[in-house]
Amino acid sequence: MQVVFVLFQELQRYIGFTAADEVVLQGLHSKLQPFFPAIVETFYARVLEHEDSRAALTRGEKHVGQLKGTLVKWMNELFEGPWDERYVERRARIGRVHVQIALPQHYMVSAMNVVRVGLRERLSQVMAEGSKEAHAARDAVERICDLDLALMLHTYREDLEAGQARAERLATFGALVGSIGHELRNPLGVIETSLYVLKGRTTDERSTKHLDRIGQQVTLANDIITQLLHLIRERPLASTRVDLSELMTGTLASTAPTVTLDVSPGIHVEGDPTQLRQVLVNLAQNAVFFAGESGRVEARLHRAEAGLVLSFDDSGPGIDPSIRNRLFEPLVTTRAGGIGLGLALVKRITERHGGTISASRSTLGGARFTISMPAIGATP
Ligand code: HEM
Question: Are 3-165 and 240-373 the same fold in CATH?
């Protein structure tokens, strides 16, 4: 038996949800069903009203029409039951979908409240206020809403626990990577030296081509090791006053000239210019890669109330929902040939500069990465 079903049964006992409630809910179904679409309308109107919950609609607002249909179906099941193991598994899966799209947990409570209030209002229309039946109906509806809410919140707990387990694995992985990285430097160094010697002695064109290819791959292997070591090592920040506006304009002009820039001049931060440059390069390269040859990338840097806001927008396919809430973890990537260190490094460096990074949907159709960071001269 699944753990979540055991939890569900325990909660049923705690809340006092019994076979009598099941009968009441099934009896209410046909009376309340005509109102489901209207309740769902209010539900999504509320979601769309708030910027943060609207941002969770990663597939765009057009997708809302389809979601309304799934919510009506969800309400039908709420009243129809049976409230068995398969019901619980379906509910847990819905919760996992929300976790996967990184919908903040607190929305669940308020969203369920919209459903609750909607049902309560409709109940008072179809039943005589104060009657025994009305009390029983109201109690049954409250209980099933509580149970469904508990199931959805449980999936967030599952996710937190999985996150902790991942963090432990990553810590072990970090130590391992550190030692393997160091050990690999020596053989790679020997290969590089021997390549140099061989290249000096080879005149044959095909052999030279292959030696060059080996050289490129050795450089790539060295880069990967360097990035991995950067990620696991707390390199001290070589902090100085940095003109981020200038750094951004210069870095992008040389590494990603196709990016459209909108940079306010004279924004200064206290930070490590080499590491900040790495942030800009990684974000720009990702955006350019996903936008593709005919796509668009826009980068912005402006002052904000508590510092600065830096963002990259691209017209690519957007963030893959399957990795959305692991986006900044090492070794997570959807880039062909990528090893998934770029964004992890960006997050690490941003946080070491007192900043935060988030990902959302861009108005260009693809992804937007936004960094907020303290700036010199801004009011914290
Ligand atoms: C009482 C609270 C909620 C219920 C019962 C509910 C129900 C559902 C259901 C049944 C699905 C389909 C799951 C599947 O594909 O298997 C779903 C998906 C989704 N829900 Fe909710 N939802 C709730 C709250 C919210 C809120 C507050 C948002 C805010 C934006 C939201 C956004 C979404 C999105 C974006 C998806 C689709 C994810 C995807 O497939 O890309 N939900 N929800």
Answer: no
Element (H, E) at 356: strand 356-361
pTM value surpassing 0.70: no
User: Does the CB atom of residue 47 touch ligand 1 within 6 A?
Assistant: yes
Sheet hosting strand 297-304, strand order edge to edge: 260-263, 297-304, 307-314, 367-373, 356-361
281 alpha carbon – ligand 1 mean position (Å): 35
User: Does the pLDDT of residue 33 top 60, yes or no?
Assistant: yes
Q: What class does CATH assign to 3-165?
A: mainly alpha
Percent of the chain's residues with pLDDT above 90: 52
CA atoms within 13 A on the CB side of 50: 13
What's domain 240-373's superfamily in CATH?
Answer: Histidine kinase-like ATPase, C-terminal domain (3.30.565.10)
**281 pLDDT tier (thresholds 50, 70, 90):** very high
Confidence of residue 165 (pLDDT cuts 50, 70, 90): confident
Ligand 1 center to 57 CA (angstroms)? 9
Name which residue sits closest to atom 16 of ligand 1, judged by CA.
94
